[in-house]
């Protein structure tokens, strides 16, 4: 489902609000009624908010496209959520890089 949604976003969705979006995961409820789609969005906070609004307004279209591609008894409602794990990981890497640079300079060079 993750790959199909990512493909739909890349090839079919034409909403100008939706920027560079990566589908990082999909959690489908046990009853198959809802699927939470986690996305990472590149850009400013305003870009991220606009992309999330665009995805939410296009959820019915994305769901119908998904229905053409997947054979499921129930096609879940799609709920889009921002996934900040990529950003957190990049921030941690930056902090580690800063610590490493300080260590290379030695004591007293802050």
List keywords for this structure.
110 residues; alpha+beta; GMP Synthetase, Chain A, domain 3; 3-stranded mixed β-sheet; 4 helices; 20% strand; elongated
Structural topology:
Blueprint (H helix, E strand, L loop, with lengths): L1 H10 L9 E8 L5 E8 L3 H13 L1 H11 L7 E6 L2 H21 L5
Parallel strand pairs: 2-3
Antiparallel strand pairs: 1-2
Description of the structure:
- The chain has 110 residues and is an alpha+beta fold.
- It has a single domain (2-84), classed as GMP Synthetase, Chain A, domain 3 (2-Layer Sandwich).
- It has helices at residues 2-11, 45-57, 59-69, 85-105; strands spanning 21-28, 34-41, 77-82.
- A 3-stranded mixed beta sheet has the order 1-2-3, sandwiched between helices.
- Helix 1 (2-11) packs across helix 3.
- It is elongated, with a radius of gyration of 19 Å.
- The chain starts with a helix and ends in a 5-residue tail after the last helix.
């Amino acid at each position: 489902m993750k790959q199909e949604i990512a493909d739909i976003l890349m090839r079919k969705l034409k909403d100008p609000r939706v920027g560079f979006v990566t589908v990082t995961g999909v959690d489908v409820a046990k009853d198959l009624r809802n699927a939470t789609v986690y996305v990472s969005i590149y850009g400013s906070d305003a870009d991220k908010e606009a992309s999330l609004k665009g995805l939410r307004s296009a959820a019915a279209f994305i769901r119908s496209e998904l229905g053409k591609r997947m054979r499921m008894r129930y096609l879940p409602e799609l709920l889009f959520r921002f996934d900040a794990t990529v950003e957190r990981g990049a921030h941690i890497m930056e902090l580690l890089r800063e610590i490493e640079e300080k260590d290379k300079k030695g004591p007293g060079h802050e």
